[in-house]
Amino acid sequence: MAKRVSASNLAAISHRLLEVPLDVQSVTLPDDMVAERCGRNTVWRLIFTDGRKWFMKFCDDLTTFQRETQGLRWAEELASQDDRFMSASIVYSDKKEKVFATEGLPGLTLLDLCKSTFRIDRNPFGKETLKANTRLAVQRLCDWLGQLHRIQLSDTSCLYDHSVSAVSKRVQRKLKKNVNGYSISDLVGISSVEPSNLLGTSNALIFGDVTLGNFFFDGEKIGAIDFEDLGVGPPSRDFKTLELEFQRPFRTITYRSDRYLLQQLSHLSSSAHPIFEFELKLLRLEQLVQSSSSTKREQKRIRDELQQLAMRL
Q: Are the CB atoms for 45 and 36 separated by under 8 Å?
């Protein structure tokens, strides 16, 4: 039987993890529990001796804490209404310390599932079965996003603003940013962008960061983690992000995109404003510039795509 962990024990664990130096990647906790750093944020994976995995996240500010925990509660509500969905239950939450812990989700991330399905140098057998499984996972994800977009909002104070006008302002700030001694605007060859149409898009609750590593699939159900970018904006932004995830041939996702999936996602994201794609590719260029393993060819391709997008704005 799995040992129950009390709120006081989790509070003690959170205080212990806050004291761990940044260069330490794992620590042993009482009862032989192990904590490992994971992700780019202050997130710890708590591994129990019985194999259970929980996650503890420390938020930078109260607004982020409220956004993350509200997103988890909405996901739990969706899972309770539809057996195609699952959710990571909150097992600990401390608003004052801006920390919370959740149970882990079963299955594989969509990133791992897609790598197994589409990579040229892996899995020479059983590809059709894996493709069918991946198609089901993506269909489940699209269904989950559709339900999320329908949630009625009464208070948006803790949510990100992903409207066209807000994204346009973020892009302008990003272009002025210096990275490794270079101005982003100089790298792109564009000093500013002025979208010709800021209207015509309806806003709703959107996930905001539909990257493949943020979703788990257990063979039947889909579930989400990391609600840090949860916000209000056009639903097409979520589908455009997912479409780009399947298109980008970068080192971390080197699988071959499946034509059926791309056709499906292109239809869902066809109404996305070009400024959303511009922002996503701009963020990708910044990551490439900061990465020691990226190539000039990769950076040039993104720059060319950004210049083409700028002409559509």
A: yes
CA angle at 208 for the pair 202 and 209, rounded to the nearest 5° = 150
| CA pair distance 186, 86, nearest whole angstrom | 45
**Residue 230 falls inside a structural domain:** yes
State the Cα–Cα distance between residues 53 and 104, nearest whole angstrom. 5
For residue 33, the enclosing domain spans 1-58
Q: Domain for residue 299, yes or no?
A: yes
Q: Among residues 310, 50, 283, which one has the least CA distance to residue 170?
A: 283
91-130 tens-digit pLDDT: 999 999 999 999 999 999 988 887 776 654 454 445 666 7
What is the tens place of the pLDDT at every residue in 46-92?
A: 999 888 899 999 999 999 999 999 999 999 999 999 999 999 999 99
Tokens matching residue 191: 């000093």
The verdict on residue 220 lying in a domain is yes
Q: Does residue 79 form part of some domain? A: no
Q: Would you give the DSSP letter of residue 131?
A: H
Domains identified in the chain, total number: 2
